[in-house]
Each structure stands twice: as C-alpha cells, then as structure tokens.
Write a structure and sequence with these properties.
Elements: E1 18-28, E2 36-37, E3 43-44, E4 53-63, E5 69-71, H1 73-76, H2 89-107, H3 114-121, E6 124-129, E7 138-144, H4 153-161, E8 165-169, H5 183-200, E9 206-217, H6 219-229, E10 233-241, H7 246-253, E11 267-271, E12 290-294, H8 306-309, H9 324-344, H10 348-354, E13 368-372, H11 381-391, H12 393-405, H13 414-424, H14 433-445, H15 450-462, H16 466-479, H17 488-502
Parallel strand pairs: 1-6, 7-8, 7-9, 9-10, 10-11, 11-12
Antiparallel strand pairs: 1-4, 2-3, 4-8, 5-6, 12-13
Length: 503
C-alpha cells in the first residue's frame, strides 16, 4: 500500500517530540472474557477461549527517534483484535467492516464506499511504530474510545508530541464489547479504566502523580465517575461529552460513588450546539473549577478523527456546521493549554483564554469562554472521624461554619450525613446530642429534605424536646410529596413513621 510522505494532519502545531506508538495487550484475569459486538448488538465469534477480560492499551509517547510513519490502516486494524495472536487478515477485514459500519451509523445512512475507506487507510499519521522513548518522565493522559485507536489518534498524537504519554482504551460493557448506557455499564467501564490506569502506571516513563482523562460522548461520564473516586486523577476534559447532559447526570447519580461533592478536580468542558447538552448540568459541582468553551461550528463526533477526515471523505458522518479543520485545531490547542496548566504548571497559553475579558481567543471557532470557580473541599470522611475522636464534635461544627462563611452552603453531602450518623450511633453518641447537632447542619444545608427534618425531629424527640421535634416532624410531612431525592421504598417507610408520631 502506498503511503503519503507527510502526515495528513501536518497543519496542526505539533510539539518538539516525534511520536512513538505501541499496543500493550493486557488482560484483567479477575473478570470474565466478553465477546466482540457491534453497536447493533450483533455478537461476533472469537477463537480466543483464554479467560480474562482483554483490554488492549494503545499508547502514543514522546520519542526522540525518527522512523517511517504509520499509515492510518494500522490504527483501524487494531479495532477488533484483543490479543496479539488475533491480529491478521481475518481481524483486519472485520476491523475495516466495523469502521465503515460505525461511520455509516453516525451519519444515519449508508455512505462510506470501499474507495472512501481506502483513501483513509492510506493517510499517513504522525506516529512511528515502537520507536525509542524520549528520556524523562511525562504526564499520563487516558483517552477512552469504543473504537480505539482508530477514532481519536490525531488528538493523541498531538498531545504526545507536546510531551505527554497518551493511552487509548476501548471500554467494554458488562457482557459484550460495546459499553452500556446505564449505571451498571458505567461501573463496568470504571473498572476498565481503573485496571488500565494500574497497568499504565507501571510504565517506567510515566509521571504517576500527573494524570488526566479526556472523554468524548458517554466516555466523558465514565471518566468523571473514575475521577470522583480516584484522587490520583488531577484533571478532566469533557470533549463534547454527555457528561453535560441531564440524562448522563442521572446515570452518574444512580451510582454509589458519584455525587457533586466527590468531584473536586479542574474540568475543561468543551461543547458544541446540541439540544441535550448544557453547562448548567454541571453547575452543581461546587468543589471543581470548571472552564467552559463553546465551539459553534463543531458537533459531537467531529471532535474525533472524523472532523479531519471530512476533507478526504466529504460528509463522512453528516454535513458539518462550519470549518472542521479550524474547530478541531482550536479544540486541540485549548486541551493542550489546559493540560499544560494543570499537569505541568505552564499557564501562559491557558491565560490567553480565560484571564482576559473578552478573551483574545474568542472568535469564529470559539464563541463562548467562561469559568466557574469551585469552593475549597472539606476534609474527607476519615479525616472528619479523626477530628471527632481527637478534638470532639466542636471541630466538625467549626469546619461546617468555616465553609458556610466562605460561601458554600452545602459543604457536606446528604450521603455524608447518613454515613456519619451511622458511625456516631456505635458507642459514640448515647444520648443523641451529637446527632442533633449533625442534623441541624443537614437541615440548614438541605431545608427541603423530608428525611433530614424527620431525623432531626427523631433525635430531638429522644431528648424530650417535644415542641422542636414536633416542628420538624411536621416539616418532614409537608415536604414528603415533593422530595425527589427519596426512593419509593424510603418514601413509604418515612410516611408510615410520620403517621405514627403525628397521630
């Protein structure tokens, strides 16, 4: 196959490094193997009967070696093989079939011809196969995508050329290759990300203290879920992700670990015009500095390689809104500036976006830029338990008042109050006096919570404060019907308890 001499994306402002590429065929033997499937749900037979969940990791890295550049066909042919032994003519054919199928699905009609595919396969990338790594340690960026490495290779190459180790991983569903848009699917994908992170942190040139995630579409929510429970993650980019949708926020909030108070890392939210995407859906992340940028001429999947491939296969996934090359470039440069600031402490380029009003970077490709600064996070649960043991409940009072005075009316989450009162209940608060003080905070922060009013009423009742307890019981009763935070079973139990105490 003839290959172009120059990378097709040469107009990007690549960095000082050459880019090496390699694939690590990893296997999570703690979980069962899952078969390959396409987006329609069709399962494909596999000759691989070895146990374990196969998770190939596709890695772009800074290199100081010049070598022949890979054709894009190398990345497409890696879509379906999950083991090194699976690579070959049969897997190449299926990978290319899947690539065409996915482009047609995104377009909404069958459109990509064999000639179109051949055009893309022959494009020269910016990567060379398994070249020598540049000396030093580099921040790690994980960029999950269901068809890695074929869909996001250009952005990954671009970041690697600027001194990052960038890893692509195809997250999987619980029972098949395609991810599930559900709470169970989210948990499976977070397990995949956590496993991939563990494997990548063993690489010798990875800076284990500087890690970021970049997610497009639903992968942005999977990245947010990992970041909410793993504080090794230092920055998150939602690249036109569903993370900014009400639907995916509902999925996130169905899981155990995710809640607004658990997200405290800086977030760059790049978004395009979309009826279901709004920055408002992450305004509740009060402990996170959120940087917003709207690219009016882009759309969700044009932020992937499709945006640049449109020049070679016009309307590859549908008619574009505007200049895709300029929009893709603007997005890549903004992501780089954000990561340089958060992981390398190099803030000059990022300041050009967010430190001026109006910004020098506002223009045709980016028409909206603004920042929402987060509050200082409170101590975690273990630290708050230790404070109680060593200094008494007054220390908890002081922390609460400090954060409220700083403008954060909800320093502790609803989950915190429930878990902390359960911890106090075991031999630490025999006369309920600390739980009264705890739920006085809860009612102040969440005055529309029927459960908080009921629990404060109950603890006051145990201390014979009958007038006050009756007040909170009645408040709980009045709020019960409109409290959307209650599950049906909890609502029923609470209603029965209130009927007993009020009658």
């Amino acid at each position: 196959m003839d290959v172009q001499e120059e990378p097709f994306s040469n107009y990007l402002n690549y960095g000082n490094y050459s880019v090496g590429f390699k694939t690590l065929f990893t296997n999570d033997v703690s979980r069962p193997r899952v078969p390959f499937s396409d987006w329609s749900g069709k399962l494909y037979p596999s000759q691989d009967a070895a146990p374990g969940r196969k998770l190939p990791l596709h890695i772009w890295y800074p290199s100081d070696e010049k070598a022949p550049l890979l054709p894009f066909s190398h990345f497409v042919d890696l879509i379906t093989p999950h083991t090194e032994s699976a690579m070959g003519m049969d897997s190449d054919s299926l990978s290319r079939e899947i690539y065409k199928y996915q482009a047609d699905e995104l377009k909404g009609e069958k459109g990509m011809t064999d000639s179109d595919l051949d055009t893309l396969l022959q494009l020269t990338t910016f990567s060379a196969l398994e070249t020598k790594s540049a000396p030093g340690i580099f921040p790690l960026i994980i960029v999950p995508n269901g068809s890695s490495p074929a869909n996001q290779s250009v952005l990954c190459e671009y970041l690697a050329s600027h001194g990052y180790i960038v890893a692509g991983v195809s997250l999987k569903g619980e029972f098949a290759h395609v991810v599930d848009a559900s709470a169970r699917g989210l948990e499976s994908s977070v397990d995949d990300l956590q496993f991939a992170l563990g494997e990548l942190l063993q690489l010798p040139n990875v800076n284990t203290k500087q890690i970021a995630l970049v997610g497009n579409a639903i992968e942005s929510s999977f990245c947010a879920a990992l970041a909410s429970r793993n504080k090794k993650i230092k920055a998150l980019v939602s690249l036109e992700g569903g993370f900014l949708s009400e639907y995916e926020q509902r999925i996130l909030n169905e899981t155990v670990f995710y809640e607004p108070q658990s997200v405290s890392l800086p977030i760059l939210a790049i978004y395009a015009p979309h009826p279901n995407i709004s920055p408002n859906n992450i305004y509740s992340l009060d402990f996170s500095n959120r940087y917003f940028a709207r690219l009016p001429e882009m759309s969700e999947f044009h932020f992937l390689n499709y945006g640049l491939f449109d020049a070679y296969v016009p309307n590859i996934i549908g008619e574009p809104r505007g200049d895709l090359e300029a929009g893709f470039t603007a997005g890549a440069e903004l992501i780089l500036a954000f990561l340089d600031t958060k992981l390398k402490n190099k803030s000059y380029n990022f300041q050009q976006y967010y430190d001026k009003t109006p910004s020098d970077k506002l223009g045709k490709s980016i028409d909206t830029l603004y920042v929402l600064e987060g509050h200082e996070p409170p101590p975690n649960m273990s630290q708050l338990k230790n404070l109680f043991v060593t200094q008494g409940f007054g220390a908890i009072d002081s922390i609460y008042k400090y954060h409220v005075a700083a403008g954060n009316t909800k320093p502790f989450s609803q989950t915190f109050y429930n878990d902390y009162k359960n911890w106090l209940a075991y031999k630490k608060d025999p006369d309920y006096k600390y739980r009264i003080r705890l739920y006085a905070m809860a009612v102040e922060s969440y005055p529309n919570s029927a459960l908080n009013h009921y629990r404060l009423g109950y603890y006051l009742d145990q201390n014979d404060s009958l007038v006050k307890s009756n007040h909170h019981y009645r408040m709980a009763s009045g709020l019960l019907d409109d409290d959307t935070t209650l599950s049906p079973s909890l609502r029923t139990a609470l209603q029965q308890a209130l009927e007993e105490v009020l009658n």
